[in-house]
Write a structure and sequence with these properties.
mainly alpha, 3 helices
């Protein structure tokens, strides 16, 4: 692991820890994920819908990690 990546991981973990008291999936995120899954035509309450919601959250987490990695490279974090 490169030092920059390691630092990004530490920063990301720190941010998650700071937000630990927050609701695991806030209402705005949940609504956005629901819209995405609804737009795909997946029926709510099905295992496929649950999987879609988890996938939307994973994609969002990946976007956040890429953002943090870019900030580390720029020297902001």
């Amino acid at each position: 692991m490169t030092p920059a990546r390691g630092f990004g991981l530490v920063a990301y973990t720190s941010i998650l820890a700071a937000l630990g008291g927050c609701q695991a999936l806030d209402d705005l995120d949940r609504e956005a994920y629901q819209r995405a899954c609804d737009n795909l035509g997946i029926q709510r309450g099905t295992p496929t819908y649950d999987q879609c919601m988890l996938q939307q959250q994973a994609l969002d987490n990946e976007d956040n990690q890429r953002f943090l990695d870019r900030e580390v490279v720029k020297g902001v974090l």
